[in-house]
Amino acid sequence: MIVAARLALLLGQRTARLFLLPACLYFMIVAPKARTASRDYLRRVLERNVTWRDVCRHFLFFGTCLLDRLYFLAGRYDVPDLTVTNEETIIHATRDGKGCLLLSAHFGSFEALLALGRVKHSRAPSLLMYQENARKVQALFRAINPDLELDIIDLGRPDALILAAERIRTGHCVGLLADRDLNGRDLLAMPFLGDDALFPRGPYRLAMALRCPVVMVVGLHQGMGRYEIVFHSLSSALSARPSDPELWVEETMRCYTRNLEQLCRAAPLNWFNYFDFWSKGSR
Predict the structure, then answer these.
(1) Cα separation of 235 and 215, whole Å?
(2) Dihedral angle computed from the Cα positions of residues 237, 166, 137 and 25, in that order, rounded to the nearest 10 degrees
(3) What's the start-to-end Cα distance of the chain, in Å?
(4) pLDDT digits (tens, 9 = 90+) for 26-60
(5) Could you tell me the residue ranges of all domains in the chain?
(6) Is 186 exposed, middle or buried, given 0-12, 13-18 or 19+ CB atoms closer than 10 A?
(7) Model's pTM, two decimal places?
(8) Is 131 helix (H, G, I), strand (E, B) or coil?
(9) What is the DSSP letter of 240?
């Protein structure tokens, strides 16, 4: 992975893009589970029969986002074109000088948000993730850009909540992906694209403990090197623990999944969960 990333940076974006289609066709052949998951998702979101061309385009979008990720992280911000929608949401959430909790998804490019923070000379968000993923991410980031300082909080640490609270208190935003939990614990079925899908409660319990604003953000890939950062407010800061915590969690989750569904219908090829998302035994 690291060798491929360095080679892509050496070749340049235009040359590296020539390898995307052959690579996507290869993975369509050798990854039948991902191919089946893509077809199932596209059938739901497009509400029609899906062809192999649709699946190929889905894989190609994913490959393009992976390639663009390298240029975001390498600091080549002149390559992608960034625009922002609902920027007032994040401005309002951080108006008192404190940070907020940013919930994203395996949708588009989260790295676009990191790039946006650095382009505007502000702090890139701290990231919450488990140690194994954190090691892989840090190794890749150091290989791409040794000067890139990425603040990752290991979710497995006993003091992870304290560290996240300190980042928010000092003006950092803390981000995590809220559409998947690799441990498969504490999940709640939510309506999503015509059926129930399991989403983790953990991010919302974290938000309740931190008592900070909760903002959803995605880096929407629009093709041709263009990305749109989209913000949606999910909840304002809590002044006290809700009288019915479980109801608060469910309502905030419902707002997140409803926004995610709308984004999927508006830009279906940006969804990158290549597994049986609607199977209760898939987590």
Answers:
(1) 7
(2) 0
(3) 25
(4) 989 999 999 999 999 999 999 999 999 999 999 99
(5) 2-270
(6) exposed
(7) 0.89
(8) helix
(9) S
